Amino acid sequence: MITLLPVLLALVCAPLLAGIINRVKAWYAGRAGRPLLQVYFDLFKLLRKGEVISRTTTWVFAAGPSIYLAAMIGALLFVPFGSARAPLGFAGDFVLMAYLMGFGRFALMLAALDTGSAFEGMGASREAAFSALAEPVMFLCFLALGGGVLPSLHDFCQAAGERIWTFARPELLIIPVVLFVLLLVENCRIPVDDPNTHLELTMIHEVMILDHSGPNLAFILYASSLKLWLFALLLVDVLAPALPGGMAMEAILVLAGVFGIAALVGVVESCMARLRLLVVPRMLGMAGMLAALALVVALLR
């Protein structure tokens, strides 16, 4: 039961990250902004609403959000919470975690294509292109953290924190930077995508869910919150070494780190504009080169 507590904490607190990002952006703009718990209110409201479903869609459209949510919860089961082991874990488990996220994304793209909408097909095409570029970068990050071997994700994170701070391996500090870029890309945040835009020609993720409403839209929004939590927790696991003070103190520090990363996302979105679509692959290519450099240096040392 203790190993499931971090997962339950993620299921409860994940929507709070979007609230923190919105409040930071509002503070930068000098506005009052939406309530911190607005995402929870939106989810409860959507769960009580009905749905409008096009007659051109099939069961693929209806199943997409549920599969997306199930895949995100499944991926979250492999991510450790500080020094506490994840509920699931084995050698090379990061591959399954990555492809669970990919499977959820694939289900959402199929649901978008099932509508027959040209706009949603355009969004699905962009999502597929960017994800195909982001996945190799993620694998390079994990290989660099593991020094070319394939332990479990928990061992990756524990070894990374120890090597960065105890054995002074500065090349591994590149990996958190690359992971933060992946967080922005995978969660469709500025400068890659604007989650608040309503211009179909510039949207990526949001255009894929234009036809979803009611509980299915709530599933998508909630799964997206879990995905943001997963990447933020990975960043904290990589950066933070084993901390003294017991499990309670460590849990507080890890939570503070996750919320701090959400605040950092808000700062980035307040200071940057959205990049042109043609620039995003270059950014991912640069991130991949940095991850590959960290891997080469880690193998040579």
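The above is record 1. Record 2 follows with the same two-line structure.
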Amino acid sequence: MGRPRYESSDNRDEQREIATALEGAWNATLVDLGDASEIDYVAIRDRQAVGLVEVKRRRNPMGKYPTLQISLTKIIAGLKLSISTNLPFILAIQWDDATGYVTIKAGTYNVVEGGRRDRGDPADVELMIEIDTGRFRVLQKTPAPA
């Protein structure tokens, strides 16, 4: 038996909302790659793939932490696809108060132990990369929820 799947339909709806905002900013269509893919979307412009996109939602303001952590396994998968296709691998994050993105480059981040400890799943703790939040290009600022 594999790992439990924690992604809910609400998570997928949030990802789609973020993808829609990215589409407008990038003048591209983000095509959902589905459950079989290790990353979320491919960006298409004029029928050509122009980028590989992983989308995440963080429930805190962008400035709460100096870095963002994301699974090293996820980053490796995206970079492998990037190398194979010669397309940039982009990580897009929506925080409570901003949406931003960064193009992921191999070998430019700290590797640390991290992850969730609140679900009692030991597989939630893994190697992560840390990305300085100052490296993200901010697409839009949004008011923080009340």
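The CA atoms of residues 89 and 104 lie 6 Å apart.
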